[in-house]
């Protein structure tokens, strides 16, 4: 009964990120940035995993810095973390141009979303 009540209390967007396997809207946002229509089921699964792990890595990196957006070195550390993770973990169908575009988009999102929290 408790599980049914929980399911009924979730709005459509919350139901979606739970269905997709994310804990919150932050993970699904990264997933949506990386998602493409031409992905196989295996690639989609990989993208879900990359989005979840990347979000955890970003939050852990940002937590190490005080006012991470104020210094070029800390900005670069977050930017490079995103780049390195995408290069290492994205499926092979993502080429250099794709990775560069996604890296920039994700960095801009992270910069906007987490600059106040850090």
Describe the structure in your own words.
The protein is an all-alpha fold and 118 residues long. The chain has one domain (2-114). Helix content is 74%, strand content 0%. The protein is built from 6 helices and no strands. It has helices at residues 2-9, 12-19, 25-34, 41-64, 72-89, 96-114. Helix 3 (25-34) crosses helix 4 (41-64) and helix 4 runs antiparallel to helix 5. The radius of gyration is 16 Å and the shape is flat.
What labels would you give this structure?
6 helices; 74% helix; single chain; 118 residues; 0% strand; mainly alpha
Give a short overview.
The protein is mainly alpha-helical.
- Mean pLDDT comes to 85
By secondary-structure content and strand pairing, the structural class works out as mainly alpha
**Main pleated-sheet profile:** none
Order of helices and strands: HHHHHH
Q: Span between N and C termini?
A: 39 Å
Low-confidence stretches: none
Radius of gyration: 16 Å
Shape: flat
Number of domains: 1
Bin the helical content: over 70%
Proportion of strand residues: under 5%
By DSSP (H or I, 4+ residues per run), the number of helices equals 6
Number of E-state strands:
0
């Amino acid at each position: 009964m408790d599980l049914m009540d929980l399911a009924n209390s979730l709005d459509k967007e919350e139901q979606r990120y739970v269905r997709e396997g994310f804990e919150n809207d932050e993970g699904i946002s990264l997933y949506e940035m990386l998602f493409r229509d031409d992905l196989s089921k295996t690639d989609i699964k990989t993208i879900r995993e990359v989005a979840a792990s990347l979000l955890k890595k970003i939050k852990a990196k940002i937590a190490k810095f005080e006012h991470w957006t104020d210094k070029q070195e800390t900005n670069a550390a977050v930017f490079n973390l995103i780049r390195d993770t995408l290069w290492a973990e994205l499926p092979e169908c993502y080429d250099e141009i794709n990775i560069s575009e996604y890296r920039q988009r994700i960095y801009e999102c992270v910069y906007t979303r987490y600059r106040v929290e850090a």
